[in-house]
Design goal:
The chain has a five-stranded parallel β-sheet with strand order 2-1-3-4-5, sandwiched between helices. The chain has one domain: Flavodoxin domain (Rossmann fold, 3-Layer(aba) Sandwich). The protein is globular, with a radius of gyration of 16 Å. The chain is of the alpha/beta class and 182 residues long. Strand 1, helix 1 and strand 2 form a beta-alpha-beta unit. Helix 1 packs parallel to helix 6.
Length: 182
């Protein structure tokens, strides 16, 4: 059965190493008949969450702030799988991804009990180094707290400059993970 996948790409480099990983994942997922929509968050106008608890009044546009999150909300709500993609910045996800994910709380506010929609999820990251432990800790706790199911992680260290990922085995891993989605 075909699934709808949304990729929230928190890299500021649209042609960087994180994007190469998401492109491989997308190729695999589409080869298996899935529909993939990717948002390059660094190119979008996204404001940080105000913590106002004012969202959820209009579930078509759940946040009180009106910015490019209104492009993400409908795709996110329809998605079966959410891919969180980011370079490793100071041992965690990028600010761009954190900002967008925080703003997804407005969708939970549409539920009287603040429940998030149930999703499957994937973590994709690229880094100069290899210290993904804090990011994995965050992701694992997020998944557990939201009641989501992780389909896997692709964590590629040792890639700093754009193009360093060329011919890296992690590209094959990303493709295989995407292809495994049914």
């Amino acid at each position: 059965m075909s699934k709808k996948i949304v990729i929230l790409n928190g890299s500021p480099r649209k042609a960087g190493n994180t994007a190469a990983l998401t492109a491989s994942f997308t190729k695999g997922a589409e080869a298996s008949g899935n529909q993939v929509t990717e948002f390059f968050l660094g190119e979008m106008n996204l404001n940080g969450c105000k913590g106002c608890f004012g969202g959820g009044k209009n579930c078509d546009s759940p946040c009180v702030q009106k910015d490019d999150m209104d492009k993400i909300y409908p795709v996110y709500k329809e998605a079966d799988i959410v891919v969180l993609a980011s370079p490793l910045y100071y041992w965690t996800i990028s600010g761009q991804l954190k900002t967008a994910f925080d703003r997804l709380f407005a969708v939970a506010e549409c539920d009287a009990n603040y429940r998030n929609p149930q999703k499957e999820t994937v973590l994709i990251m690229a880094a100069e180094g290899h210290g993904f432990e804090e990011s994995e800790y965050w992701y694992d706790r997020l998944e557990k707290h939201l009641g989501w199911k992780s389909l896997g992680k692709v964590l590629c260290g040792g890639v700093m400059k754009i193009g360093d990922i060329k011919d890296n085995k992690k590209l094959e891993d990303a493709y295989a993970l995407g292809a495994s989605v049914h």
